[in-house]
Amino acid sequence: MNMKPLDALGELLDNQVLVRLKNGIEVRGVLKAFDIHINLVLDDAEFDDGDVEKKFKTLFLRGDMILFVS
Fold first, then answer.
1. Which pLDDT tens digits describe the chain residue by residue (70 residues)?
2. Cα 49 to Cα 1: distance, rounded to the nearest angstrom
3. Cα–Cα dist 53/48, whole Å
4. Is it true that domain 18-69 has CATH number 3.50.50.60?
5. Helix boundaries (H) for 1-70
6. CB burial of residue 35 (10 Å; 0-12, 13-18, 19+)
7. Rounded to whole angstroms, what are the CA distances from 13 to 20, 40, 52, 59?
8. Which of 14, 39, 59, 62 is most buried (CB neighbours < 10 A)?
9. Contact yes or no for 52/69 (Cβ under 8 A)
10. Sign of the C-alpha dihedral, residues 65, 43, 48, 17?
């Protein structure tokens, strides 16, 4: 089956995802929403920027900063 990127994201809704950003940071959280620009909303998100681990109840990620979602 040939799945389109937005269809694949739709399958991940309400599931834990890993998102790698262009700056090398990896963010983990529960995918709650996305749009055609691959802007993402994650709940219970967390990432480690090298100095300290940061946690967010809700986090918005701009699609133009995202390398991949898994």
1. 677 889 999 999 999 999 999 999 999 999 999 999 999 999 999 998 778 899 999 999 999 999 999 9
2. 37
3. 4
4. no
5. 5-12
6. exposed
7. 17, 10, 28, 15
8. 59
9. no
10. negative
